[in-house]
Amino acid sequence: MAQRPAEQDAVFPAFVGRDYEVARIWCVILALGLTIGCAQAYEECGPLANAYGPFDYRTDQDKIAVVEQYHFTPPVENLKRGATGVIGADLDYTLRAVPNHHRALIAMVRWAERLKTEHTPGANYTVKCYLERALRFRPEDSMARLIYANYLTKHGQKEEGVKQLEAARENAGDNANIQYNLGLAYFELGDYTQSLSHAQRAYQLGFSLPGLRNKLQKAGKWREPEPLKPDADAQPTTEASPAGNPPAAGQ
Q1: How far apart are the C-alpha atoms of 139 and 168, rounded to whole Å?
Q2: Which pLDDT tens digit goes with each residue over 105-153?
Q3: Are 66 and 98 in contact (CB under 8 A)?
Q4: Largest alpha-carbon pair distance within the chain?
Q5: For residue 134, with 0-12 CB atoms within 10 Å meaning exposed, 13-18 middle and 19 or more buried, which class applies?
Q6: Whole-angstrom distance, CA of residue 55 vs CA of residue 242
Q7: Can you give the pTM of this predicted structure?
Q8: Which residue, among 199, 211, 196, has the nearest Cα to 246 in the 3D structure?
Q9: Contact 202, 176 (CB under 8 A)
């Protein structure tokens, strides 16, 4: 009998310990006639097992440094030229080794948009697959969900994008960068109440860039937040935003 890959546990939780082929059959039955069963859809985006990795972008910096040195170089991230081949191949290598590499996910989205395709040359999967793989790997990664939510919204899937935002919000905690990017995402959706709430929290936590505050002020929705007592667990960062580039003043 065929063996079920270990990472299938998250996709077929009811079939833990059973034969993988049985899970596939039930999945197609439950799909009620859909052309592509969920097991097949899973296979289209590939297993997470990789020759090197997979590693978590947030916690395995010591292991991913070599990947960035040889594949996710500044010219690759800036979409200028590939490091070992075409740009798509180097981004693919990076995202197979580090599925939730935030900056590489953003670069892949931008590269596909520039080429006007969902499947860039040299890549093994579509852009949406890389985003789904990131969440299959680390479903609690709020920044990966933000990147996915932004992608869905820009591609006309607003309802699904909002669902991803809500899931990201549940795990955002006191990370100033994630709070800021949640505010940006809700602003783009026209939900100024949620945008203001996350913007205030981000600035309370020490986020320094004024872009979101400027947007809300221009829309007549800004209110100053209450002062916040210092918190040792707060994380005021300015990591890459899901919009595609690191947040910049005035954006």
Answers
A1: 9
A2: 999 999 999 999 999 999 999 999 999 999 999 999 999 999 999 899 8
A3: no
A4: 63
A5: buried
A6: 20
A7: 0.70
A8: 211
A9: yes
